[in-house]
Write a structure and sequence with these properties.
Elements lengths: L12 E3 H9 L3 H10 L6 E2 L6 E4 H13 L26 H8 L7 H9 L7 H11 L9 H15 L3
Antiparallel strand pairs: 1-3, 2-3
Helix pairs in contact: 6-7
Length: 163
Amino acid sequence: MPAQPTVSPTKAFVSLSELAEDVLGLSRARVYELIERGALPMPIYDIRTRRPMFNAELIHQARTVRQTGVGVDGSCVLFYRRERTQSSPETSTPARARRRAQTPQANRYAELVGSLQGLGITQADERSVAEAVAVNFPNGLDGQQESDVIRVIFRHFRRQGSA
């Protein structure tokens, strides 16, 4: 069973984000969905800032819903398991960067090929894009803005008359 997220018991109020991530282990979108459905309690709002927040009683109700699977309105609430891992250097990097790092060499430039084909470069394929990247970016694409890479590779193909 995954480790249950916890929140400090000394807090009198938590924000919706804290309730979602720290207390329930859910995404904010899922919490909003459950609130709209009536399965989770409605937040109280700060009059001055209009921010939603949850007091100790509402936090307890939300935890009870998570543990029992029965919403405050009596409806059945299903929760999918969410992988909780200890904080490590890999998990501190953005998901997009992790996906790029895990991308196999064969599909390394698939997104770039799609962008170039969308711009009318019909001859763009994995091999030709890889060659164009090697010519124009001999040190690799690390640290390069995606828009800059697309522009440079687009111009490369245009100079070759491949469009």
